[in-house]
Amino acid sequence: MLRAQMDSSCQALCRSLVSQNENIDISQSVLYTSLMGLLLVADKERELTLGNGQVGLYNTGNTCFLNAIVQCLSHTQGLRDYCLNKTYLQNTCSSRVPELMNEFTKVLEGLWCTDEGKRSVNPDRFYRVFKEALPYFSGYSQQDAHEFLRFLLDRLHTEINRRHPHHTAATPEPSYTRLRISEEAAAMWKRYVDKDDSIIVDLFSGQLRSSLHCSVCSHFSNTFDVFCDLSLPIPKTSDSRTGVTLGECLDLFSHEEKLSKENSPMCETCNRCTETTKSLTIQRFPKILVIHLKRFTALRYSIRKSTVPVSFPLTDLDLGPFGPSDCGAVLYDLYALCDHTGTVSMGHYTAVCQDQDGWCCYNDSCVTQISADQLQSNQAYLLFYRLKNNTASRK
Ligand SMILES: [Zn+2]
């Protein structure tokens, strides 16, 4: 609250209190001072006082995948502050109690409490509420951290959506023919946020453009999809020990793909399925970019894990080349990652997160400081990047 605003509302309140209770022996100025003091204290409390966040999470039975993701989200500053400030209580449109959000916030309060003796938090209640909401995650078998991240963010979003659940988008479907790509993309984005709008969308949502090019008539068409993370394929290497770079994964993700007639959608101009090329670009960059490295491939009867090392930049990951042609450099810095060690059936998840002092490894209840050169491995599974402030966020 602005000081001036506070001042004038405080004066008004004092006037009305004093005029309504003329028999009370209290001067307007004394009342003013006390009220103003109270308001200032309340305002100050909103500036969070936090511990260093180096607090672990107990493993309550195969919950390492949950713990690793919670640590990564706990170090996503925009989300953490939104929760700890309880901003969502004023923001939500739903009349239902945001049960999962409340429990998630309690875990964060434990992780960021200023009590220096605090080593670990028990997240059991939060996980129970989560599993009640999503019975799919019940049972204590090894689960996928990426899937959990998606379900968790989706569920939190539903609880704190600023749009009414039954709100129907007023924006009509844009007529594509005469719009420029950027206008078409902006119209599709507006349609999306007319229904789905929350801190989760503010932070994690971006927009992908998929362009199709007909090889017969050269007709171009675009479709736009919202994404909350990018799932990148890992290129094959002749020697799996040499490894690949994140840039090579991004290249493979966005490279032009030839679709046969059988796999192509119908060309609007030819009115039949034709050979088509398809390519993906990032139309709208999210503030928080989560990259999922596709280490797990489903085979017929089993799941295979790739242990190819993927090297990634800690700072200045440039996604500009994968965006619209005129977008320039779009730089991201790493602030958290989730590793998967072991095999498909006997695996373990840990998180590595950055704080003021450097990097810490979060292995359930055990938190240890590590150096930046220990981050690269053949186990990196999810990478959390934040858009640099000096890069303008693009519409
Ligand atoms: Zn065509």
Automatic annotation (TrEMBL):
GO molecular function, one term: cysteine-type deubiquitinase activity
GO BP: protein deubiquitination; proteolysis
UniProt domain USP: residue ranges: 55-388
Record-listed E.C. numbers: 3.4.19.12
Stored InterPro entries: Papain-like_cys_pep_sf, Peptidase_C19_UCH, Ub_carboxyl-term_hydrolase, USP, USP_CS
Family: Belongs to the peptidase C19 family.
Protein name per UniProt: Ubiquitin carboxyl-terminal hydrolase
